[in-house]
Amino acid sequence: MATVRKSRKSLSPSYAANMAGVAAVDRALAIAEALVNAGAPLTLSQIADASGLYKSTVLRLMVSLERSTLAIRRQDQRYVPGPLAFRLGRAYEASNHLEEFLLPLMKQLVERGMESPSFHVRQSDETRLCLLRVDSHHSTLDRVRAGDLLPLKRGAPGKVLRRWAPGSPGADDAPAVETSFGERDPMCAAVAAPVFGPGGPLLGALSLSGPLDRFSDNAVRRMTRPLLQAAAAATAALGGVWPSPRSRQVTAARTASGRNARATLTRP
Fold first, then answer.
1. Same domain, 111 and 230
2. Which segments within the chain are labelled E, that is strand?
């Protein structure tokens, strides 16, 4: 039997009210996402531009967002994410046991002399969020901290998050390890691997990053196996399934002083 879609005029008042409620939630979440993605305090006009909403709509919804502490208004009348946003982030970590299982593995990488490990998750179509970070024992470090919003389309962790995302074309043939050389920061490099959760979906990207001059071909090869072992161990601890072992040749294009270098990497 064919389904007949009701016209807007024929909707009952209660049904129409429910649909309006859903629309209001969508708009409020669009505002919250705009605040999170900005990484800086925003005015009402800036929130309206970022969310695509009318300024009057933003002003009305901000009352509810402030009441819930999902957003707060500063004395300069600019808005930032509030305490609830932080609590939601901590709840996400707790519910997925990320910190419990990942931090020991990340600290082990540091003790083995690796570069600084970080764990990144996809924040939006344009950004990724660094959830966890442990500094290496090296005297010089790259500038990445837990809570930083970074570009999704630049850097080794971003490549992992995009290529292994559910439904991404070619995910089945994605390399086990991704590398980047001076993409996000011209003085930094990184190598990253995927971490999977229950049922197989990608949870995030575990990376090792540091100054570019410490990422020679030999250094990348030396870091690859410990990184993959840690990513596989994290996947197992979080109830995920690591992809079937098979060797793959990964070509890492390195852009530094106009030179290209290639590194052959394999799964553990």
1. yes
2. 71-73, 79-81, 116-122, 127-133, 149-151, 178-181, 188-196, 202-211
